[in-house]
UniProtKB/TrEMBL annotation:
Any Pfam family: TctC
Protein's organism: Devosia nitrariae
Transmembrane segments annotated in the record for this chain: none
Family: Belongs to the UPF0065 (bug) family.
Keywords annotated in UniProt: Signal
Lineage: Bacteria, Pseudomonadati, Pseudomonadota, Alphaproteobacteria, Hyphomicrobiales
Protein origin, superkingdom: Bacteria
Database matches in SUPFAM superfamilies: Periplasmic binding protein-like II (SSF53850)
Name of the protein described by the UniProt record: Tripartite tricarboxylate transporter substrate binding protein BugD
């Protein structure tokens, strides 16, 4: 036959709406990035893209669901750095990020911010570090569960200060932000895609950004190093994946569409407003994401072990 069944499916692709699983709550940082990209990809592909939020267990529930979805190009996963940290944080993850997915491409790298409710006592990062050392477990710290970026950042912070805070897990930092705004939680470390607007409006306190330089969207927020926290740099990279076994022609089409979406002016501008930027086109590729995932998985295994964290 001139065409295999696969080839025909790839030629017609996409013939129906595509679902992108976001492994965290709606309204949070991963959801925000996904919806911006999905909108532009949808225009490029001429098909509707539905964002499905499957929160829980630090992003591992949504990833597990995507890993076992049909490999037909109609269920995708947009996940972040958690794809590389979860294998070190869980004893038995129900999927292997490196073998159960076909990488499509990198999407963006998002800085983090250390933030607190607006009436939290410490004024500067220096004050905050002293306050944490002094009050430890009396401080409540929101995160999106083991495997989340917010959890990773908090783990590194507690390790750097050699102290514990009381962790309060959510299904995403979207709902955690609601509680931070309401003053029910003391602090969190969260991506600029979720914190920039609230920081700019003065609704929460910001102590530091986790980038080597200050960022344009938040010029008044010092870097962690400026505030006395050395070697505290963290960039939350995001990638788009299909289940392993997806036709390479479909993966190729999705990667091309991702590149088109990231080059869209409105996407770039929305990202910039939130303190981030799309990756260059040559990073929105299967190879670049596979490489990033491999090197980051190795790195975080070492860091987690060095921090003395026992996988759960
Ligand atoms: C989210 O989308 O809620 C976040 O990415 C959670 C996190 O990883 O901290």
């Amino acid at each position: 036959a001139a065409f295999s069944a696969h080839g025909a499916a790839a030629q017609d692709y996409p013939a129906q709406p595509i679902t992108i699983i976001v492994p965290f709550s709606a309204g949070g940082p991963t959801d925000t990035v996904t919806r911006l990209v999905a909108q532009a990809m949808s225009e490029d592909l001429g098909q509707q893209i539905v964002v499905q939020n499957v929160g829980g267990a630090g992003g591992t529930l949504g990833a597990a669901q995507a890993a076992t979805a049909a490999a037909d190009g109609y269920t995708l996963l947009l996940h972040h750095i958690g794809m590389s940290t979860a294998p070190a944080l869980y004893q038995s993850l129900p999927y292997d990020p490196q073998t159960d997915f076909a990488p499509i491409g990198l999407v963006t790298e998002v800085p983090m911010t250390i933030v607190a409710r607006r009436d939290f006592e410490p004024e500067t990062l220096e004050d905050l570090l002293a306050h944490i050392r002094e009050n430890g477990e009396n401080i409540t710290y929101a995160n999106a569960g083991v495997g989340a970026a917010s959890q990773l950042c908090g783990m590194l912070l507690m390790d750097a200060l050699d102290t514990r805070m009381t962790e309060v897990p959510y299904q995403g930092t979207g709902p955690a932000m609601t509680d931070l705004l309401g003053g029910q939680i003391d602090m969190m470390c969260d991506q600029t895609t979720n914190t920039t607007t609230q920081i700019q409006a003065g609704e929460i306190k910001a102590y530091a950004v986790t980038t080597p330089e200050r960022i344009d969207a938040l010029p008044d927020v010092p870097t962690a190093a400026e505030g006395g926290l050395e070697n505290f740099e963290l960039a939350i990279w995001h990638g788009l994946y299909a289940p392993v076994g997806t036709d390479p022609a479909i993966v190729e089409r999705l990667s091309a569409s991702l590149q088109t979406a990231l080059a869209t002016e409105t996407v770039a501008q929305s990202f910039a407003d939130l303190g981030t930027a799309p990756v260059p086109a040559d990073q929105a590729t299967p190879d670049a994401l596979a490489e990033k995932l491999a090197t980051q998985t190795e790195l975080w295994a070492e860091v987690v072990a060095a921090a003395g964290v026992t996988p759960q």
